[in-house]
Amino acid sequence: MTYLTSNQLKQYNEKGYLAPIDILSKQDALDAREEIEKIEKEMPNEIDNSGRYNVHLISPKLDSIVHNSKILDVVESIIGKDILVCSTTLFIKNPNEQGFVSYHQDAKYIGLEPHNWVTAWIALTDSFEKNGCMKMWPKSHLEIKDHNEKFDKGNLLTRGQTVENVPENEIKLVELKAGQMSLHHPRIVHGSGINKSNDRRIGFVIQSYIGANVRQTLGKNSVQLARGKDNFGYHEVIKRTKSLMNVENIALRNKENKYLQEIFYKGAKQKGSY
User: Fold this and answer.
1) Residue 274: which pLDDT band, with cuts at 50, 70 and 90?
2) Which of 29, 164, 196, 253 could join 179 via S-S bond, C-beta 3.0 to 4.6 A?
3) Is position 163 within any domain?
4) Alpha carbon distances (Å) from 231 to 67, 211, 226, 235, 237
5) Total Cβ atoms within 10 A of residue 237
6) What is the DSSP string of 186-233?
7) Cis link prior to 87 (omega < 30° from 0)?
């Protein structure tokens, strides 16, 4: 078992995030990257832009990460023994592209209430300052903050949602080696810069692991049961993928991504690329 220590849990609760946590071997991370790139090669544009969501539904390698017992042990320390998987996201920053993530809070637009959930960010490549690692504003998870919706070019967020006037002197870098993970609270303000290196930066994000008591208030999400029981029954439960790029699973993924688009753009005046 790899449950969090009392000191780790204290850091998460006080600062709103925890990193680094060793989860995968470098080979496991590389295997996942290679499967992503196999999908990109065989199904061009399938996981570009808004296609980056729920790739675990067509990728057995990513599915195995989502259900990794070491990750679930850590997550259980935060949200309890009943754990549901409510979508995933790939954040891929290619070299010489202007992709960035503005400072924002996940809880603002995802619609999951109450906030008994946590986001796991797994580095499939090294993630460091030069290639655009995540940056956290410690202790900013104590309240929901105002966001501007900029729909700005290069922003990897759906609306370009942005928290203004973030104090850069308080920001902490979250640098991870391939196979390491960070956890962050639904309300922590975070973002990331552009990739100035000569290789891709790939982050696989389980967004999010939710407690069974969490509802979707803006639309509909299906979930997978990762651990424990779902005694509330707020969501449709879907099965895990059995094979790479399975036709049935592709159809399921398309349906789930449509649900996500409806949630992310609820009330928006326009629609972005993601």
Assistant:
1) low
2) 29
3) yes
4) 20, 10, 14, 11, 12
5) 11
6) TT-EEEE----SSS-EEEEEEEEEEETT-EESSS---BEEEES--SS-
7) no
Average pLDDT of span 246-256: 95
Please give the sequence-ordered ranges of beta strands (E in DSSP) within the chain, or none if there are none. 17-22, 83-85, 88-93, 101-104, 112-113, 117-123, 134-137, 148-149, 161-162, 172-174, 180-184, 189-192, 201-211, 215-216, 224-227
At residue 270 the predicted structure's pLDDT band, cuts being 50, 70 and 90, is confident
Cα dist from 205 to 14, 65, 115, whole Å: 22, 10, 17
The CATH number assigned to the domain holding 80 equals: 2.60.120.620
271 assigned to some structural domain: no
Q: Has residue 81 been placed in a domain? A: yes
Number of domains in the chain: 1
Tens of pLDDT along 49-79? 878 999 999 999 999 999 999 999 999 999 9
Residues 209, 117: contact at Cβ < 8 Å? Answer: yes
**Mean pLDDT of the residues in the chain:** 94
Contact 129, 171 (CB under 8 A): no
Token pair in block for residue 153: 């070019």
How far is residue 29's CA from residue 178's CA, in Å, rounded to a whole number?
A: 6
pLDDT for 2 beyond 90: no
85-130 pLDDT tens trace: 999 999 999 998 888 889 999 999 899 999 999 999 999 999 999 9
**In the predicted structure, residue 252 carries a pLDDT above the cut 70:** yes
Residues 239 and 249: their CA atoms lie apart, in Å, by 9
* DSSP β-ladder status, 101-104 and 148-149: unpaired
Residue 272 predicted with pLDDT over 70:
no
Residue range(s) defining the domain that contains residue 155 = 6-264
